[in-house]
Design a protein that fits this description.
The protein is of the alpha/beta class. About 35% of the residues lie in helices and about 15% in strands. The chain has a 6-stranded parallel sheet with strand order 3-2-1-4-5-6, with helices on both faces. A 5-stranded parallel sheet has the order 10-9-11-12-13, covered by helices on one side. A two-stranded parallel sheet has the order 7-8. Helix 12 links the parallel strand 9 and strand 10. The longest helix has about 30 residues. The chain is globular, with a radius of gyration of 23 Å.
Length: about 425
């Protein structure tokens, strides 16, 4: 079948997928952010997920052109597509309840152009049931069409790992699903045509949704376990990383490390599963216990840094502290749900003066998101403490010891520094 694909949402997930599909199909990338669309049309991706030369190689000049990617914020440009792939974010609110508004809005957008025979595939991380119980009714209402009679749906969970240039979208096995056996096969064939790692066709949309949400819940729980170990071993004055290295010599030991757990997936997805479980009258103890542990690590790191400073006779109020990194992970500009801000906020509560240096993060984006000043220029002054919060490659080359005051302390959250440090998780 001749597939004309629309990708709804051109962020960290949507753009790499649109670029990949554009190597074999006519693709229109749709986003409501005019600045984002303009940027992509110029051949540049500020998320750095798609290199400019690769992006430019698939761009085309008009939505009706054959094979290639056309970026737009004009609804009319996606009206002739027959496959719509929704890749909008699914965050949580301040009380960690799922926010489905982006999905509703995207479904309304698709519903306005939906035609008989069209297929809508959702990739956004959700709890089981969202596609059919929340999104499909919106599509039906706006389009006036009937589900599985006039149009069809599927779910294929995104597996993008921001900043990872090795495990790119085509190299990660893709789970697919569809609302009927025929549509499931069609969707699976579509993804299989571009995903070199292969596909796994799940028996239902709900199974595919559940598979995605437990992937990151599992990682969250495992990281919570080693974070708790770090707290215990620090009290015993045992180096956690030495313990993990020794334990890792056993063939079936899982290699997780302690740290700050943020980002748009691991720090969010467990709440989606927990929310759905509670609707069924079940309180998920392990999942939420893991979340509580990981959400406290920013406060814990700040307290450990202050304790080291006190031990070195450094006056805390007014002390100058340099925090290295504010993105949620290394070598990536993504600042969504970063837990580095928890470390910074807790350090500020002690009356310290904080400088945040991150060559990857946009100062304007950080200010807009967190009302916090950052710099992309290497600081020149001396600091009473330096906290490595994110292991960007640039930080590993800095002369950190020479940037400290006489009794200054160096705390390595990521456990990656080769030089001697006062503390690390």
């Amino acid at each position: 079948m001749n597939e004309n694909i629309a990708i709804i949402g051109l962020g960290y997930v949507g753009l790499p997928l649109a670029r990949l599909f554009a190597t074999k199909y006519a693709v229109v990338g749709f986003d409501i952010n005019e600045e984002r669309v303009s940027e992509l049309k110029s051949g540049h991706d500020s998320t750095l997920e798609v290199p400019d030369n690769i992006l430019q190689s698939v761009l085309k000049n008009a939505p009706d052109d054959q094979i290639g990617l056309y970026c737009s914020n004009n609804l009319e440009d996606i009206s002739k597509c027959n496959v719509y792939v929704v890749t909008v974010p699914t965050p949580v609110d301040s009380t960690n309840r799922p926010i489905l508004i982006p999905l509703y809005k995207a479904s309304e957008t698709v519903g306005k152009v939906l035609k008989k025979g069209d297929v809508v595939v959702y990739e956004s991380t959700v709890y089981p049931g969202v596609t059919e119980d929340e999104c499909i009714p919106v599509l039906e209402k706006i389009s006036g069409l009937s589900y599985n009679i006039d149009f069809y749906a599927g779910y294929s969970p995104e597996r993008i790992n921001p900043g990872d240039k090795e495990h790119t979208v085509e190299k990660i096995l893709k789970v697919t699903s569809g609302s009927t056996p025929e549509i499931a096969k069609r969707i699976d064939n579509l993804y299989a045509s571009v995903i070199t790692a292969g596909t796994h066709k799940a028996p239902s949309i709900k199974v595919a949704e559940a598979a995605k949400v437990i992937e990151n819940s599992q990682r969250d729980i495992n990281i919570a376990f080693v974070n708790e170990l770090a707290k215990i071993f620090n009290l015993m004055e045992i180096d956690t990383h030495d313990v993990l290295e020794a334990a890792g010599t056993k063939w079936n030991f899982l290699p997780f490390k302690p740290g700050l757990v943020g980002g748009h997936c691991i720090g969010v997805d467990p709440y989606y599963l927990a929310q759905k479980a509670q609707q069924y009258g079940y309180h998920p103890e392990i999942i939420l216990a893991g979340r509580r542990m990981n959400d406290t690590m920013g406060k814990y790191v700040a307290a450990e840094v202050v304790k080291l400073m006190v031990q070195n006779d450094i006056k805390i109020r007014g002390a100058k502290i340099l925090v290295l990194g504010i993105t949620f992970k290394e070598n990536c500009p993504d600042v969504r749900n970063t837990k580095a801000v928890d470390v910074i906020g807790n350090l500020k509560s002690y009356g310290t003066e904080i400088t945040v240096y991150d060559p990857w993060a946009s100062p304007d984006e950080v200010m807009s998101e967190y009302n916090m000043n950052t710099t992309t220029e290497i600081p020149k002054e001396k600091y009473d403490a330096i906290v490595l919060a994110v292991s960007h490659k640039q930080f590993l080359e800095l002369p950190l010891r020479s940037m400290l005051s006489k009794n200054g302390v160096l705390y390595d959250v990521k456990g990656v520094l080769k030089c001697e440090v006062e503390g690390r998780l």
